[in-house]
Write a structure and sequence with these properties.
By secondary structure, the chain is of the alpha+beta class. The protein is built from 15 helices and twelve strands. The strands form four sheets. Strands 2, 6, 7, 8, 9 and 10 form a six-stranded antiparallel sheet that branches. Strands 1-3 form a two-stranded antiparallel sheet. A two-stranded antiparallel ribbon has the order 4-5. A hairpin with a 5-residue loop joins strand 6 and strand 7.
């Protein structure tokens, strides 16, 4: 079975693979037990007709797809991890397996996690726990259902090995998973080229990213093109984080190697969803300083983009890059407002200022009252149309209190 393709040209990543990737071989696993397949997205990219047995083999042994990558590619990158620059990064337990297209010709990557060691494994075993894979199935599926831009968990295959992990009960079962995402090019990919002073490779990377993901930024002048690319990425990252905040999602590890160039949620490690609104809620037990706590996510997103801008100074004017970063804040605000209204089932006001006033009223009350986050959005979905349901909710006591009055008034003025 072949994926849908618009032509027979080589996978685009091969344009830059010599400078940004290393060919690798997948691990040999003792078993291949299919635990999850994303049939809807498999149909979208032309792989939906695989039998379960063929699927389990394809996404555990990873034989090449027809007219695709001859070998998997482990991508090279650097990144800031909890604020500290790390030049020893790269795909350490995953690789880019293939690039596929949907019927409209849109490009997607099939990338793995738990597929074995690579040159970037840093003494790690290159494996993934089954429960880690299940957690990503749940997170990606839930975020997609909430309308958050996210990578999709495409496949999860149990591999029959027993893994030992120091921070959870061991031994534990192993698995290999496959993500479907728009790109695996990260902010950290740009940081590596800049840190190594590889100006020519950085220019190639910019051209590649613009050509395949941000054609609106194309410009014959490299300096202008780099700034236009940053502006596009800033807008998309701002929109993504606005969606996170409306969904009560805490990513947990907002390192610069965990931001891709299309503003798409990926790499679900110690993520959490808020039980109630708490700006200081931290998802990762090892984030003891709360660097990536819920309330810091918007600022951390901008900080990551500033690191991308710093990498682009090799080819673009700093003043132009600073101007490009201004796209972030309005994109974040608009996304946060519109997505909140979407999740609570009401229309936006048509004025960002009015929508932000509504957000201030709603989220201040959510934080002060500690009302259950998901329950509130369920109870008041549709605004005034749901008043009777909210009155009979398990959380009705929160709505009967005086401090809810401004929220009620704001909701009553909203049209479903």
């Amino acid at each position: 079975m072949e994926p849908f393709v618009s032509d027979r040209t080589p996978p685009p990543i091969l344009e830059i693979a010599d400078a940004f990737a290393d060919p690798v071989a997948p691990a040999n696993f003792p078993q291949a037990i299919l635990r999850y397949r994303n049939q809807r997205w498999a149909d979208t990219v032309g792989l939906g007709d695989l039998t379960d047995d063929a699927w389990a083999h394809q996404f555990s042994a990873f034989p090449p797809l027809a007219d695709n990558l001859p070998d998997p590619l482990a991508l090279r990158y650097h990144g800031h991890q909890f604020g500290v620059y790390n030049p020893e990064l790269g795909d350490g337990r995953g690789f880019l397996f293939a690039q596929v297209r949907d019927k409209a010709g849109k490009l997607y990557d099939l990338g793995t996690k738990g597929s074995g060691q690579t040159p970037w494994s840093r003494q790690g075993d290159g494996r993934l726990t089954l429960k880690g894979g299940v957690r990503e199935v749940l997170a990606a599926s839930y975020l997609e259902a909430l309308g958050v831009k996210t990578s999709k968990l495409f496949s999860l295959v149990e591999t029959g090995e027993q893994l030992v992990r120091g921070d959870e009960p061991s031994p534990t079962r192993s698995a290999v998973m496959v993500r479907l995402s728009e790109t695996h090019i990260r902010i950290g990919t740009y940081q590596r080229a800049a840190a190594l002073d590889q100006t020519e490779n950085l220019a190639r990377l910019i051209d590649h990213t613009v050509k395949h993901y941000h054609p609106e930024a194309e410009d014959p002048d490299m300096s202008r093109q780099a700034s236009a690319l940053l502006e596009r990425v800033a807008g998309q990252v701002g929109a993504m984080i606005g969606q996170w905040m409306a969904a009560g999602f805490v990513h947990g590890v907002m390192n610069t190697d965990n931001f891709n160039l299309t503003g798409e949620t990926f790499d679900f490690g110690p993520y959490r969803f808020l039980p109630h609104s708490d700006p200081n809620f931290t998802a990762a037990y090892f984030d003891q300083q709360g660097l990536y706590r819920f309330g810091r996510q918007p600022g951390q997103g901008l900080w990551a983009l500033q690191q991308l801008a710093a990498a682009l100074t090799l080819l673009a004017e700093p003043a132009d890059l600073t101007e490009a970063l201004k796209a972030y804040e309005p994109s974040f605000q608009t996304s946060f407002a519109s997505h909140t209204c979407r999740l609570i089932g009401v229309k936006t006001a048509g004025s960002l200022a009015e929508d932000l006033e509504f957000l201030t009223t709603l989220y201040a009350w959510l934080t002060e009252s500690e009302a259950p986050w998901p329950q509130v959005f369920f109870d008041w979905f549709g605004g005034p149309a749901s008043e009777a349901r909210a009155t009979n909710s398990p959380s009705a006591e929160y709505y009967a209190r005086g401090d809810f009055a401004p929220v009620r008034a704001a909701l009553m003025g909203k049209v479903p």
